């Protein structure tokens, strides 16, 4: 993971939301209470003119379907990328027992005593470990969320001191799970390349040894979900993000479409995939990353397991030449991906503001 300045603010014990929940108080600390313009309007029904469920891709039809099924699913994938930037993937080929195991070890980790979890602190200068990321000032509002993040690939990103010894099968499960998600990302990028009429290996050849990280998010129930956010609005700096929503969790993920926050209803055993800033740049804005956030629930906790998949930090990126023409002139400059990653983690989450780094100024 790219380094961040030593001036980053370390979140204290008093800001651990699981510890706050244990106090069983209805009082929300000021540090979590959002300005009125940022608060989620959870009591208002969503007014949206069409089906508000994000689209679903049947991955098995891409991998082993007949020609007609394959073509239909590719067209659907193109629509997902062009119009939504988000989609759910069913029949993804990952063992459902493995999905249960990763949720189990994640929950076991979050349920450990605070003192145990604090053996793996999110140290200033990184976005790995336990705590809250993207916090840079004492007056910055905090998310109602505890995070545990780890760098996975390339291997040099791993900090062995941050890999917990409890639960005993944590490391093995994360490794097996991450290998499966990595295969899924590689395959999805092949099919996304096909939707753009590009060679199916264009992204894999360009990315080098892809960077991969995992972040587990735990959102305890909140007595006043109308005052807080589980996770601030942002787009992802990755190429692809794969999110597993914990079984039995509250609906918390929301995406911004036509200035309306739309909840993503979990489909059992499906994975949520979204386009990151990197794909927006590479496609010259044809496929856009989408702003999203998490909200909390008054009675239900929520767990999510998020994998970020991105090019090697050494790679120079810019719009793919075939996707730049007179009708779609170049919108983004060329840059080093490591520099962008560093820029991303040294700024707090503010919608799509970090992508300004790459935009060509008019």
Automatic annotation (TrEMBL):
Pfam families: 2OG-FeII_Oxy (PF03171), DIOX_N (PF14226). Keywords: Iron, Metal-binding, Oxidoreductase. Residues 210-311 form the Fe2OG dioxygenase domain. InterPro entries: DIOX_N, IPNS-like_FE2OG_OXY, IPNS-like_sf, Oxoglu/Fe-dep_dioxygenase_dom, Plant_2OG-oxidoreductases. Belongs to the iron/ascorbate-dependent oxidoreductase family. This is Fe2OG dioxygenase domain-containing protein. It comes from Rehmannia glutinosa.
């Amino acid at each position: 993971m790219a380094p961040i300045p030593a001036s980053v603010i370390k979140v204290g014990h008093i800001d651990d939301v699981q510890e706050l929940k244990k106090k069983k108080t209805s009082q929300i600390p000021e540090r979590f209470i959002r300005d009125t313009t940022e608060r989620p309007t959870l009591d208002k029904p969503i007014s949206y003119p069409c089906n508000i469920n994000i689209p679903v891709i049947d991955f098995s039809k891409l991998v082993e379907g007949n020609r007609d099924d394959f073509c239909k699913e590719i067209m659907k994938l193109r629509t997902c990328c062009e119009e939504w930037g988000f989609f759910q993937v069913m029949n993804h080929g990952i063992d459902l027992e493995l999905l249960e195991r990763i949720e189990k070890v994640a929950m076991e980790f979050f349920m450990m005593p605070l003192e145990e979890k604090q053996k793996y602190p999110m140290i200033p200068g990184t976005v790995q470990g336990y705590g809250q990321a993207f916090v840079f000032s004492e007056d910055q509002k905090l998310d109602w969320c505890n995070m545990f993040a780890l760098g996975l690939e390339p291997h040099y990103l791993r900090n062995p001191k941050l890999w917990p010894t409890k639960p005993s099968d944590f490391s093995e499960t994360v490794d097996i799970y991450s290998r499966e998600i990595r295969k899924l990302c590689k395959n999805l990028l092949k099919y996304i390349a096909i939707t753009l009429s590009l060679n199916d290996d264009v992204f894999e050849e360009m990315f080098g040894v892809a960077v991969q990280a995992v972040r587990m998010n735990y959102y305890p129930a909140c007595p006043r979900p109308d005052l807080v956010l589980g996770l601030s609005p942002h787009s992802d700096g990755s190429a692809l993000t794969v999110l597993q929503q914990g079984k039995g969790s509250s609906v918390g993920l929301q995406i911004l479409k036509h200035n309306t926050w739309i909840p993503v209803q979990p489909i059992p055993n499906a994975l949520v995939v979204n386009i990151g800033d990197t794909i927006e740049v590479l496609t010259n804005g044809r496929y856009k990353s989408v702003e999203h956030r998490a909200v909390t629930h008054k009675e239900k906790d929520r767990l999510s397991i998020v994998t970020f998949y991105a090019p090697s930090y050494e790679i120079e990126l810019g719009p793919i030449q075939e996707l730049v023409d007179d009708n779609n002139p170049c919108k983004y400059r060329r840059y080093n991906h490591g520099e962008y990653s560093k820029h991303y983690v040294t700024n707090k989450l503010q919608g799509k503001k970090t992508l300004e780094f790459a935009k060509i100024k008019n």
